[in-house]
């Protein structure tokens, strides 16, 4: 998390920016200055963060993001949710060796599955001291921004990659890394508020944990209950989990345990009428 983001005054007179809608300019300014941003201009940004910070509806966020992606201001990998502000490093190049190292550290955190990672490393890898794959596109390094350093930074930061051995491993890995997808019937703003409650309670918002919460809400719906009301109750009460509203709990099916179902068991099964084992 950063304390501020730097924006040049020419932002407001740039033809590309002036051609954007009002929402487009607001979101572009947000990408340059939001707390999630980094010195390298690449960072993870799910739609929920934008909805919460700008107080926008999910549809408004999707429409405006599409505008920025279309005009080339930024791009995002929909699998990893990492955003790349395309000219951030041109506008705000690192100003000293420590900042170059910081930018390299951020670049090394970009997930291997990110669709634009190779393009970013190919463009800025040499300047940041990263190992550039031979297949990645290359460009001339940025000028040295520090007058006190006469030579480029030579320290190498290795970008690690994971290689699947078999097709089975690939499928297993893809299934394990499948991102959590919020169903259409759950309002994005209510879900974002619930995530903030869980964050305040220090509950881990892993994909598996969220899938379990979603399963509970689906059970409430299947029993004829109001799952959104249940989530709103959790928000109002500061709960990190979702519970069926009062009067609806008895309709929620419970998984059988090892100490249930005794009344349904046939205790004479396999025993003859004379008491011997059949």
Describe the protein.
The protein has a three-stranded antiparallel β-sheet. The chain has a domain at 188-264. Mean pLDDT is 78; it is low at 138-154 and 161-165. Helix 2 (22-33) crosses helix 4 (58-70) and helix 3 (47-54) packs across helix 9. It is elongated and about 90 Å long. A hairpin with a 5-residue loop joins strand 2 (74-76) and strand 3. The chain has 278 residues and is mainly α. The protein contains eleven helices and three strands.
Quick take:
By secondary structure, the chain is mainly α.
Name a few traits of the molecule.
elongated, 278 residues, 41% helix, 3-stranded antiparallel sheet, 11 helices, mainly alpha
Large-scale geometry:
elongated
- In spatial order, strands of the major sheet run 1-3-2
First-last Cα distance = 72 Å
Q: Strand fraction band?
A: under 5%
Arithmetic mean pLDDT: 78
Weakly predicted, low-confidence segments: 138-154, 161-165
N-to-C series of helices and strands: HHEHHEEHHHHHHH
* Major sheet description: 3 strands, antiparallel
SSE layout:
Blueprint: H1 15-18, H2 22-33, E1 42-44, H3 47-54, H4 58-70, E2 74-76, E3 82-85, H5 88-91, H6 97-107, H7 117-128, H8 167-176, H9 188-200, H10 207-222, H11 227-237
Antiparallel strand pairs: 1-3, 2-3
């Amino acid at each position: 998390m950063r304390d501020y983001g730097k924006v040049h005054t020419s932002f407001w007179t740039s033809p590309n920016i002036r051609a954007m809608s009002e929402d487009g300019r607001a979101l572009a300014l947000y990408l340059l200055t939001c707390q999630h941003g980094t010195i390298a201009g690449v960072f993870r940004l799910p739609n929920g963060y934008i909805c919460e910070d700008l107080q926008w509806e999910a549809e408004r966020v999707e429409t405006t993001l599409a505008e920025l992606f279309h005009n080339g201001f930024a791009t995002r990998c929909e699998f990893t949710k990492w955003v790349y502000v395309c000219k951030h490093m041109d506008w705000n190049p690192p100003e000293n060796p420590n900042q170059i190292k910081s930018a390299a550290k951020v670049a090394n955190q970009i997930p291997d599955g990110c669709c634009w990672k190779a393009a970013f490393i190919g463009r800025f890898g040499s300047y940041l001291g990263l190992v550039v794959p031979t297949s990645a596109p290359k460009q001339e390094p940025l000028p040295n921004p520090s007058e006190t350093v006469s030579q480029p930074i030579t320290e190498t930061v290795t970008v690690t990659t994971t290689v699947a051995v078999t097709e089975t491993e690939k499928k297993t890995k893809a299934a394990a890394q499948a991102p959590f997808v919020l169903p259409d019937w759950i309002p994005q703003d209510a879900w974002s508020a619930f995530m903030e409650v869980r964050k305040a309670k220090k509950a881990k918002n892993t994909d598996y944990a969220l899938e379990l919460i979603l399963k509970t809400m689906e059970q409430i719906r299947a029993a004829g209950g109001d799952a959104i009301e249940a989530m709103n109750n959790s928000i109002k009460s500061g709960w990190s989990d979702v519970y069926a509203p009062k009067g609806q709990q008895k309709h929620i099916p419970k998984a059988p345990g090892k100490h249930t179902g005794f009344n349904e068991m046939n205790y004479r099964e396999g025993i003859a009428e004379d008491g011997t084992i059949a």
